[in-house]
Amino acid sequence: QSVLTQPPSVSGAPGQRVTISCTGSSSNIGAGYDVHWYQQLPGTAPKLLIYGNSNRPSGVPDRFSGSKSGTSASLAITGLQAEDEADYYCQSYDSSLSGRYVFGTGTKVTVL
Amino acid sequence: QITLKESGPTLVKPTQTLTLTCTFSGFSLSTSGVGVGWIRQPPGKALEWLALIYWNDDKRYSPSLKSRLTITKDTSKNQVVLTMTNMDPVDTATYYCARQIAVAVNNWFDPWGQGTLVTVSS
What 3 state SS string does B8-61 have? Predict the structure, then answer.
C-alpha cells in the first residue's frame, strides 16, 4: 500500500549517527513535493519531527536533520540517545490517482 | 495549545458503518488554510491517510477508500466526523485525526490526536 519505501529497521549505539532513507518516485518526491518526518514513540501518536524536507519544529533537538535529493529523502539522527528508540515515518504528496497524501513503510530505530 | 481527540465505538461488526468524531480546540476550521485529516494505523503496520476536509469545505479522499468514506465538519462545535461504510476486519486499526495547514499540497500533519482503536469483529 505504501508508495514510499523505508528500511524496516536501523540500529546504533548511543552517540552514533544513523540515517533513514525514504525512497519514492517521479509522482511524489521526484515531482518536487516536500517530505516530512514523524516520530512515533511506543504506544503513542505520531509527532512531527521534520517538515518541508529539512525544517525542525520548535522543541525538536538539532540532532535530527532532514534532506532530500531526487526521488529520495533522508532523516539523520546524530548523537543517538536511548529516548530516540521509536518508529519513524516519512510523508509526502503523490500526484497519481487524483492526488493523495502518502506515508512511508516505517523504520524502527533501536538503540543498542 | 492545540489539541485533538478522537471518539467513537471501539468495536464494530463486519458490514456495519463506522462513525468517528474528532473534537479539537486551539484553532478554528473556519480559518483560511486550515484542514483536519484522518489517518489510520493497523496494529504493527504503517500509517495510511484516509481523508481531509479544509476550511472552505473542500474534501479529499484516499482513492482506494473513496467509495466508503465521507468527511464532514461542524465548525460551531469544532468537530470533524468521518464515516466509513461496510467495515471489514482488515479495517481494524487505530484511527487518528490531525490538523493540517494548507500550503499548496506540500502539507504536513501537526499535531495529532491520541488515536482511537477500532476493532472489527463479529
Answer: CCCEECCCCCEEEEEEEECCCCCCCCEEEEEEEECCCCCCEEEEEEECCCCEEE
Per-residue model confidence (pLDDT) at position B115: 98
Is residue A1's pLDDT more than 90?
A: no
Report d(CA B109, CA A68) in Å as an integer.
Answer: 19
Q: Is B24 on the interface with A (CB under 8 A)?
A: no
Cell of B42: 493497523
Please give, rounded to a whole number of angstroms, the shortest distance from the CA of B41 to a CA of chain A: 10
* Nearest residue in A to B97, CA atom: A45
Alpha carbon of A99: minimum distance to chain B alpha carbons (Å): 8
pLDDT in tens, A50-68: 999 999 999 999 999 999 9
Triad A14, A18, A21: Cα angle to 5°: 155
Residue B108: its chain A contacts at CB < 8 A? 34, 36, 48, 51-52, 91
Which residues of B fall within a CB distance of 8 Å from A97?
Answer: 63-64
Sign of the alpha-carbon torsion through A29, A78, B48, B76: negative
